[in-house]
Design goal:
The strands form three sheets. A six-stranded mixed sheet has the order 6-7-8-3-9-10, sandwiched between helices. Strands 2-1-4-5 form a four-stranded antiparallel sheet. Strands 12-13-11-14 form a four-stranded antiparallel sheet. By secondary structure, it is of the alpha/beta class. The protein contains eleven helices and 14 strands. The protein has helices spanning 44-51, 73-77, 95-105, 113-116, 132-143, 162-177, 189-195, 213-220, 260-264, 267-276, 291-301; strands spanning 3-13, 19-29, 33-37, 59-64, 67-68, 80-83, 150-154, 181-185, 198-203, 206-212, 223-229, 246-248, 253-258, 281-288.
Length: 303
């Protein structure tokens, strides 16, 4: 697919010498969900601000749908919608009035956004009475009024309970299915793991990694096979040395750590060798490193 957003050598240094971004390069394809992860102060908000025309870059360029956000700001901004982290809505307006007014500013007739975002039943409700999750949905509806091709969601699940968060994720998927490219920043690692097609990790202004989510999990995620033994094992037999095993739980659990398909293919041989040695186990389980574990390790490596 063609890149709908292209960022090249983007840098930002604020007066006083604070460097918020360092030569960021990133291409985002049309119709994907891209999750940008990073600790507080990593540069996520600055990057979004530059792309959305709210912050001036020091170096580099941004093309949105082929339009330069600096030289052709009006054309570029018509393609971009932004849902900021802070909830900023008119408290005494009804949901329908807030969205209708924003649509009117762009000369568009009413659209089915309220139904699409499960807000139709709340259309006559004043925004001040809504929950945090519903207010977030209103913000998304307002960001979609000019029918953007690119939608930025800055911490979309902040302040949203678990049930509404799941509903929010489905709403975002529906937008993607309708052709909208989604770029989200999040502190909820499970949100990125659940939704994103690709993951980017930014730390101290540098984009340290961009990878397909499945590839990232396969390359950096480690898995474990745990054999829960009937009797404790105080020393690993020499016949099992090739597997680099470890014992935990006072010898009651034998642990085989591996990564990738090659490691997984060794499991049948390991189980045969364990059986030949007469080591009885009552249960076995596998578990995989989470995206959160990968993220933490990446940030630590580059700190």
């Amino acid at each position: 697919m063609a890149a709908v957003l292209r960022i090249e050598n983007l840098g930002k240094t604020y007066p006083g010498g604070l460097t918020a971004l360092k030569s960021v390069n990133l291409s985002i394809e049309q119709g994907e969900i891209f999750a940008l992860l990073g600790p507080n102060g990593a540069g996520k908000t600055t990057l979004i601000g530059i792309v959305c025309g709210l912050v001036n870059a020091t170096t580099g360029s941004v093309l949105a749908g082929g339009f330069d956000v600096k030289r052709e700001p009006r054309a570029a901004r018509r393609l971009i919608g932004l849902v900021p982290q802070e909830l900023a809505t008119e408290a005494f307006e009804t949901v329908a009035a807030a969205v209708r007014f924003s649509r009117g500013l762009y000369g568009h007739p009413p659209d089915p956004a309220l139904r699409r975002l499960s807000l139709w039943e709340k259309r006559g409700t004043k925004i001040m009475t809504l929950s945090g999750g519903m207010k977030r949905r209103v913000m998304i509806a307002k960001a979609l009024v000019h029918e953007p091709k690119i939608l930025f969601l800055d911490e979309p699940s902040a302040g949203v309970d678990v049930e509404l968060r799941r509903d929010m994720w489905q709403a975002v998927r529906d937008l993607r299915d309708a052709g909208v490219t989604i770029i989200l920043t999040t502190h909820y690692i499970e949100e990125a793991e659940e939704m994103a097609d690709r993951i980017g990790v930014i730390n101290k202004g540098e984009l340290v990694l961009v990878e397909d989510k499945a590839v990232l999990m396969r390359k950096l995620g480690r898995r474990e096979l745990r054999l829960h033994l009937v009797d404790p094992l105080h020393e690993i037999p020499a016949q099992l040395a090739q597997y680099s095993l470890a014992t935990v739980d006072e010898g009651m659990t034998l642990v085989f750590s591996f990564s990738g398909d090659a490691g997984q293919e060794r499991i049948p041989a390991l189980l045969r060798d364990v059986a030949q040695l007469g080591l009885n186990f009552k249960d076995l389980q596998t578990q995989q490193t989470s995206l959160e574990d990968i993220f933490v390790s990446l940030v630590k490596e580059r700190s």
